[in-house]
Amino acid sequence: MSPFEGFPARKEHLTPIPATFFSELLTEIDHLGELKVTLYVFWRLDRMEGAFRCLREEDFRGDSRFMQGLGKTPREAEALLTESLERAVERGTLLRAALLTGESEQPLYFLNSPKGRAAVAAIQQGKWRPSGDPQVPVELGFERPSIFRLYEQNIGPLTPMLAEMLKEAEQLYPPDWIEDAIRIAVENNKRSWRYTEAILRRWQEKGRDERKAPDRRDTEKDRRRYADWEDA
User: Fold this and answer.
1) Predicted TM-score of the model (pTM)
2) Strand extents, DSSP E, the chain
3) Which residues of the chain register pLDDT less than 70?
4) With contact defined as beta carbons under 8 Å apart, do 124 and 131 qualify?
5) What is the C-alpha to C-alpha distance for residues 219 and 58, in angstroms, rounded to an integer?
6) Which one of 1.10.10, 2.60.40, 3.40.50, 1.20.140 gives the CATH number of domain 19-140?
């Protein structure tokens, strides 16, 4: 094994990894393949485009350098990949959803994040469909308005600082949460992003009642509870 020559002096793209990985997962993962697969998912998804990002098994297999690091032979690497993905799903780090493509099912792997959970729920509800693009295998069956258009149509004009805050929110919360939070702010006549963001943070920290009805409308009690908040 040749020694590592060190990180380059030039500025590199950094891969964001949640602190929860180090505080909760790193000490629990005792399988090298699972650790490699988990870190690879963080790295690979960060380099993908789109609001919802996922990986297929062929995405792992198609990276020859990654597969060489999993096993001494292609057969050994394949077996270890299958086992490692299974371990990551069992642990809850990754979420697996099966998308029907023709007569077969294709497993898709998402990070267990708010967006990943929302994506899996959408697949299970039949809201996703094959895209025909091998790089982005699925797409939502309907187009959602962008967060910028939602804000301008319902709350007010954008400023550069607000635009940055909205971009961050897109990475943190599922699109339907953002739409519903803006709707609640409008219904309560609290037209500010800080109020909308407070709703989103509450849902993320304390959980949200995901109703089975198609529109998941909040009850009058819910609206009154949010209306009691002071608009910062």
Assistant:
1) 0.58
2) 55-56, 94-101, 104-111, 128-130, 138-140
3) 50-51, 101-103, 128-145, 209-232
4) no
5) 44
6) 1.10.10
